[in-house]
Amino acid sequence: MQTRNLFSERTELLQTGIVWAVYFFVNVIFCIKYNPFEAIKPLYLLIFYPLIVIGIYKITTYIRIQQKNYFFLFLAFAVLVFALFLWHYINHWSALAFESENLKSGKFTYEIPSHLGGYESSFPVWQLFYFPFYLFGDTAYGQWFCLLIFFIMLFCWRTRINIGGIILLLALSPGFWWEIAVRSDLLCNMLLLFVFLTAQFYYFAYWDKHKLLAAAITGFFLCTKMLVAIPLFLYFFRKFFKYTTKEKIGFASVVFVCFFIPFLPFLFGEADILNHPEYNPLFLQSRQGSAPIVAVGCILLLGAAFVWKRMKDLYFLAGAFLFALVLTTGIRIGLKNGWDSIIFEDEFDKSYFNVCIPFFLFFIHEVKKRKFDYSNYHISY
User: Fold this and answer.
1) Which pLDDT does position 93 carry in this prediction?
2) pTM
3) How many Å apart are CA 379 and CA 364, to the nearest integer?
4) pLDDT tens, 250-285?
């Protein structure tokens, strides 16, 4: 099989099935873990949650309401308002709030453990991004801001994407609402990355003229969370080889500088992160990984960067690699501590599964037509 034919319209049915399976797998885990009713057995959740979601999705598709602007705007407004409601009534500790408190006190270091005994693992740019929202009173406002940007950009791209379907599946996702309730910043990181990468496709001419700006934003993204490297590598690696020698040097230099400079304050002194692996954020974000698995993953990732031809296949691969990385980590912990520990204990952070959701939802909802007719368009299966 030729590489260019590995993903095509002929494989979409299989890819779509995988995407839906992962969506239900991730959310059923959250349903089982945080089920407040003992009378509802896990088997019931495994059966009835997918049936309910599919039923709602099919009905809204059949009556063609997903394609209405007011449907998206109503759900976006409801999500943002309900998020504020949850934050008002749920007082949950936030790792970034702790780090922001240190920054406010002039202690912008990784060496201070929180009251839970753990260390903050976010990279400096992500901490700085959330700091203004902490000054406004709650780091949750940063999450609200990320959602707002995501919704605004989806609405701008409504002729290219079935945005009603995307926001509907978000609203029906227990994993998404868990992220909201506990003020988790992980999914928001991926939502912003999704916006950046999608803009690379939809405004290609602009970014082609401003390669160094794209490089700077890429470097800053790499200085937020380690997982963002997977989608960024898949998109930019092959594109990088098409640049001229001067463009390659400029692009790589800017990426490195924007990634490295925010780390400078933590590379000197007695408490520098290089000499203290116990709170080195690079180590903290990779400590549950396995060297052989990472090596195999890097080889596969390198090959995948040359495989995709369509935008939706890039997003399918990004979601698949993110999901596979988190899944293999969960399997390793399950083999060591027992399978119940994956769902019911905290050593394995299930929220990491959510990072694949934005990319998978795009795969399902990309509109094939360049022009999107809201009055006549009907999703086919």
Assistant:
1) 60
2) 0.90
3) 10
4) 999 999 999 999 988 888 766 677 677 777 777 777
How far apart are alpha carbons 126 and 96 in whole angstroms? 9
Q: Helix/strand/coil (H, E, C) string of the chain?
A: CCHHHCCCHHHHHHHHHHHHHHHHHHHHHHHHHCCCCCCCCHHHHHHHHHHHHHHHHHHHHHCCCCCCHHHHHHHHHHHHHHHHHHHHHCCCCCHHHHHHHHHHCCCCCCCCCCCCCCCCCCCHHHHHHHHHHHHCCCCHHHHHHHHHHHHHHHHHCCCCECHHHHHHHHHCCHHHHHHHHCCCCHHHHHHHHHHHHHHHHHCHHHHHHCHHHHHHHHHHHHCCCHHHHHHHHHHHHHHHCCCCHHHHHHHHHHHHHHHHHHHHHHCCCCCCHHHCCCCCHHHHCCCCCCHHHHHHHHHHHHHHCCCCCCHHHHHHHHHHHHHHHHHHHHHHHHHHHCCHHHHHCCCCCHHHHHHHHHHHHHHHHECCCCCCCCCCCCCCC
Residue 137 CB burial class (10 angstroms; 0-12, 13-18, ≥19): exposed
CB 124 within 8 Å of CB 267: no
Q: Which two tokens stand for residue 149?
A: 């940007």
What is the chain's mean pLDDT, rounded?
Answer: 85
Instruction: Say whether pLDDT at 367 is over 90.
Output: no
- Quick one: tokens of 253? 């230099």
Tens of pLDDT, residues 302-315: 999 998 988 999 99
- Helix 357-365, helix 12-33: angle, nearest 10: 140
- pLDDT exceeds 50 at position 6: yes
pLDDT digits (tens, 9 = 90+) for 43-90: 778 889 999 999 999 999 999 999 999 999 999 999 999 999 988 888
Instruction: Evaluate whether 121 touches 285 at the Cβ level (below 8 Å).
Output: yes
Name the burial class of residue 264, with classes exposed (0-12), middle (13-18) and buried (19+) by CB atoms within 10 angstroms of its CB. exposed
109 pLDDT band, cuts 50/70/90, is: low
